[in-house]
Amino acid sequence: MIRAVDVEKRYGRRRALRPVSFGLVAGGFLVVTGPNGSGKTTLLRLLSGLAAPTRGSLRVDAERARLGYLGHESLLYRELTALENLDLFGRLYRVPERRERIGMLLERLGLWEVRGERVASYSRGMRQRLALCRALLHDTDLLVLDEPFTAPDDAGAALLDGEPTRLAGVRTVVLATHDPGRLANVASERLELVAA
Question: Using CA atoms, how far apart are residues 6 and 14, in angstroms rounded to an integer?
């Protein structure tokens, strides 16, 4: 699914990612770790097609429409409700039976009861869970998650902990985290980055 050979990213003279090489088969679960400034977010942006490598070779065998991405920004519309946000993204991705899928995801991630409230009223943790719903909505081949466990609320922490187990072996997943121990039982591969 993914093949990276000496992939590097620079912005002018500033290095954002040291050369890195790895491969990940379809259905694999890659956990990316490293200190702040090591290029975890940069690597995930490269894998998602949001940036291009400065050097090296990167092949990702997934159409953009079949890729789910959760970055530091939720990409949600704060003035819309959870239902309105997911319905909009479901229509954009032409999700079959989107209303059923939206309901299932909102229920699974503990947001069903607040589905009609504007996202602006949500806590940071609730927005994080809704953003994960958005990334999962279109039944992706490749799921790229950047620190999905950041700032969970009490209700969300337990719900988020179950998602990696649910996804392992079903989807190809690349997940950046500062807490790799949390994923030790599901990761098929691990990549440790060093400060750029």
Answer: 17
The C-alpha atoms of residue 18 and residue 35 are separated, in whole angstroms, by 13
Under a CB-based contact definition with an 8 Å cutoff, are residues 129 and 110 in contact?
Answer: yes
Cα separation, 170 vs 29, in Å, equals 10
Contacts of 133 (CB under 8 A, 6+ apart): 82, 86, 102, 105, 106, 109, 111
Report the DSSP beta bridge partners of residue 191: 32
What residue segments make up the domains of the chain, in order of their start?
2-192
Average pLDDT rounded to a whole number, residues 139-151: 86
Q: Which CATH class is domain 2-192?
A: alpha beta
Q: Which of 130, 77, 124 minimizes the C-alpha distance to 108?
A: 130
Q: Name 170's Cβ contacts closer than 8 Å, sequence gap at least 6.
A: 27
- Percent share of the chain, pLDDT over 90: 72
Q: How far apart are CA 153 and CA 158, in angstroms?
A: 9
- The DSSP output letter for 133 is H
d(C-alpha 21, C-alpha 14), whole Å: 20
* Amino acid found at 116: G
Q: pTM of this prediction?
A: 0.89
| 3-state DSSP assignment of residue 55 | strand
